[in-house]
Design a protein that fits this description.
Its EC number is 3.1.-.-. Its main location: cytoplasm. Strands 3-2-1-4-5 form a five-stranded mixed sheet, with helices on both faces. Helix 3 packs across helix 4. The mean pLDDT is about 85. The chain has a single domain, classed as Nucleotidyltransferase, domain 5 (2-Layer Sandwich). The longest helix is centred in the C-terminal third of the chain and has 23 residues, at about 115-135. It has four helices and five strands. It is about 40% helix and about 25% strand.
């Protein structure tokens, strides 16, 4: 069974999936959503989970630097609650402070153009969230 990582935003969700052994995370895609209009992309997320035989979903929790939960973290938790009612997989949250900034740094170091970075940043952040979770469980 594999583990899925999600970087939940208000307009997109970055998706990553682990290998079967739970050692590495690979970016799958960026799912477009519209939080304001109540369009959350559940159908596509569930399709990906089924395609990859996912048993656990790790959702990035963007905590504030003082460890408190702000509006985006609360939105991620609401998303996880709604997804959990629609899918037979364990939902866990992973502190993702600075994951998007770290993903941006990796893409800048790869000399990727701004336009290309914008297309893959959420997927890369999902990879970093999932890889952090996987690494924490192998120690």
């Amino acid at each position: 069974m594999k583990i899925m990582g999600l970087d939940v935003g208000s307009k997109t969700i970055g998706v990553a999936v682990s290998d079967a052994l739970g050692w590495t995370a690979q970016g799958i895609e960026t799912v477009k959503i519209n939080e304001a209009a109540g369009q959350f992309g559940f159908k596509r997320i569930i399709e990906i989970a089924e395609e990859h035989d996912v048993s656990k979903i790790v959702i990035g929790l963007p905590k504030n630097m003082n460890n408190s939960l702000g509006p985006r973290a609360e939105a991620s938790q609401r998303y996880g609650d709604m997804l959990g009612r629609r899918i037979d997989a364990e939902i866990v949250y992973w502190d993702e402070r600075l994951s998007t900034m770290a993903a941006e740094r990796v893409l800048l170091e790869a000399d990727m153009s701004r336009g290309k970075r914008k297309k893959v940043i959420d997927k890369m952040a999902a990879v970093m969230i999932l890889q952090g979770y996987l690494d924490s469980n192998t120690k």
